[in-house]
Design brief:
The complex is a heterodimer of chains A (368) and B (94). Chain A is an alpha/beta fold. Chain A contains 15 helices and 11 strands. Chain A has 2 domains: 236 residues, Alpha-Beta Barrel (TIM Barrel); 81 residues, no CATH class. In chain A, helix 2 runs parallel beside helix 3 and helix 10 packs across helix 15. Chain B is globular and about 30 Å long. The chains are: A alpha/beta (368), B mainly beta (94).
Chain lengths: 368, 94
């Protein structure tokens, strides 16, 4: 057994040097973190299969045999209905509110906006198309960021691919462990986006206890941005950490520069939950958009998928006009740990160094 | 139930009809101005009774069950039924 507390089973089984996993939508971040000794997981959801394939090949050219993966949001539920039926369900009062917001704030109508995205069973076929790319490209790790990956576990394992699943509830973790998933990512509610209601410090130890005696490893996600979090995750029995928000403000990230600066300037309480984007609570940086839906007289956001259908055009208009105060990004409460825009490799190295300082402190070794 | 697609088969399983369940659902969401153009997940929970309809999709099989008589849904959810993936359906009588 290694005396290095950061050399975990994740390192043994995947060949990474440090148990730091980076989820990011930018391929450059994935390559940088993987080459710095961690594991990069590319957020592939919403990409066209040909774009996903191109990004996978780009990453592989830069990381060689080092471990990396792709995260897809395979669905866990869907409702029937076509776009026309759903459009008719949007109340006129909501349409008037959005029209008024555009007029009052000089938000332009979008030019050439494209409505796409699958509904109903089409969601399943779209997810299958993306999964096929992962199989064809022999991606080392498939991470399912939403639904259970159990249905493809056997095929993936036969192809030499590892299967990871992200969970927000203990019961989801139990099902994934029973299905033989290789890594369960226990993600607490302080994470960015939407991951459930259970806090990281409650969720992770419970999932670790479930996985004991099985082949499944557990990663700690939600609120992780630094070495203190990494040390705490290892102390809770996790094999490493799953991180997301911290990579948004790296040099390699494609996140807009003004949003990177906003991430640096934000406090934990600036990562709010709002239903104004999608109809579902998504943790994100506060913006004029989220504030507008909190004003007196503002209607309650509609349920998914009606809310994104209602606001799709205005949001595209905001993006095209680059109305920065109205734009935002999903972000977790760990945003408070971002103090500068840095190279991704530096983030990895400082996280490891800070974690080792914490282990020294616990062992009674004086820390400079 | 939903019409069959090219890789889908719907069929009725009487052994499921009326069984009480809870389920963890969700799907992806994407918009350009607020997610950088990337997709994020929505998670949601349901409680109701199985209608008995199953949907099998693709190879390897992806198994889905239809839930009706919904008594617990996400806020403002206004569909009478929802299809949920079998892995995240929990029977109340087990």
């Amino acid at each position: 057994m290694s005396s290095n507390p950061l050399h975990t089973r994740l390192c043994d089984e995947y060949g990474c040097e440090v148990p730091v996993v980076a989820f990011a939508h930018t391929k450059d971040v994935i390559a940088a973190v993987t080459n710095a000794g961690g594991i990069g997981i590319l957020g592939g959801a919403g990409r066209r299969p040909e774009d996903l394939r191109s990004d996978i090949r780009w990453i592989r050219e830069r990381v060689g045999n080092r471990p990396f993966g792709v995260d897809l949001l395979v669905p866990a539920s869907f409702v029937e209905g076509n776009r026309e039926d759903l459009e008719s369900m949007i109340p006129q009062g909501h349409r008037d509110f959005v029209a008024g917001m555009m007029k009052d704030n000089n938000i332009p109508a979008p030019v050439g906006s494209e409505r796409r995205g699958a509904l109903g069973p089409g969601l399943l076929r779209a997810a299958r198309e993306q999964l096929e790319v992962l199989f064809e490209e022999n991606v080392p790790i498939f991470a399912s960021g939403l639904g259970s990956p159990a249905f493809v576990s056997e095929r993936a394992h036969a192809a030499g691919m590892k299967v990871w699943g992200l969970v927000g509830l203990p019961r989801q973790a139990r099902r994934q462990i029973e299905a033989g998933v290789d890594v369960v990512i226990a993600q607490g509610s302080d994470s960015g986006g939407h991951s459930g209601t259970v806090g990281t410090f409650t969720l992770v130890p419970e999932v670790v206890a479930m996985a004991e005696g099985t082949k499944t490893l557990v990663l700690c996600g939600g609120g992780v941005s630094g070495g203190r979090h990494l040390a705490a995750a290892i102390a809770m029995g996790a094999a490493g950490v799953w991180t997301g928000t911290v990579w948004l403000a790296t040099h390699e990230s494609e996140t807009e520069m003004f949003l990177k600066q906003r991430l640096v300037d934000s406090q934990a309480e600036d990562a709010i939950q709002s239903r104004a984007m999608s109809g579902k609570p998504i943790r994100q940086l506060r913006s004029k958009w989220s504030d507008a839906w909190k004003q007196p007289g503002a209607p309650e956001p509609l349920p998914m998928p009606l809310q994104p259908m209602l606001v799709g055009d205005i949001m595209e208009g905001i993006r095209q006009a680059r109305m920065e105060d109205w734009m935002t990004t999903p972000a977790g409460q760990s945003v408070v740990g971002i103090h500068a825009i840095r190279p991704a490799a530096d983030v990895v190295y400082s996280m490891v160094e800070e974690a080792m300082d914490q282990f020294d402190r616990m062992a009674g070794v004086p820390v400079a | 139930m939903t019409p069959d697609g090219p890789d889908e088969t719907t069929w009725f399983d009487p052994s499921l009809l009326g069984r009480g369940v809870t389920a963890d659902g969700g799907a992806e969401f994407k918009d350009a101005a607020h997610t950088g153009g990337y997709a994020v997940a929505s998670r949601e929970s349901f409680k109701g009774r199985l209608t008995g309809w199953r949907l099998d999709q693709g190879d390897p099989l992806w198994r889905w069950l239809e839930i009706g008589d919904l008594v617990d849904t996400p806020q403002d959810f206004d569909s009478a039924t929802v299809w949920c993936e079998e892995s995240y359906i929990y029977f109340l009588d087990e």
